[in-house]
Amino acid sequence: MSERDPAALSPSVSAAEAPAERLTITVWVNGQAYTRTVPARLLLVDFLRNELGLTGTHIGCDTSTCGACTVHVDGRSVKACTMFAVQADGRAVRTVEGLAHPTEGGPGERELHPLQQAFHEAHALQCGYCTPGMLMSALYLLEHNPNPTRDEIKRAIAGNLCRCTGYHFIIDAIELAAARMRQQGDR
User: Fold this and answer.
1) pLDDT (tens digit, 9 = 90+) per residue, 104-128?
2) How many CB atoms lie within 10 A of CB 133?
3) Rounded CA separation 55/46 (Å)
4) In this structure, are 116 and 80 located in the same domain?
């Protein structure tokens, strides 16, 4: 018997009662390394929110339908409710908190990313719950297609649900951000 075998713990302990396996992982989040010992089945979204306190990544549906938990893992757009934290071991994760750029102002001062600024100016948010996932999906699009059509934008955010805006202003904001990012050379 291995030491992970529930029967090895106690003859009266069932597999359902056995303690969850815990693994030590190191994940690079927004450029900073974090090492934590976590349950093997902890979702990446819960790791980001509960272990690291990065609450910008939202939990909306737990079924990968809404897109509120969208982050980037090694440059790919991923719904963090579909991935275990241990699968991110040794990988780079970018969350909505990693979009704003540090400024030369005081500590903690940050300049909004062009996408964040465009969402603000184009009134592309109401309640804001879907906004982090929308921003991350839009960023993925613009990093791979700096001059998307409206139809390409619609397809890129099709996995993100918004119950407030009707999407019109979100698409306008992404177009605005794309134009500004092309002008500034941001990608």
Assistant:
1) 776 677 899 999 999 999 999 889 9
2) 28
3) 9
4) no
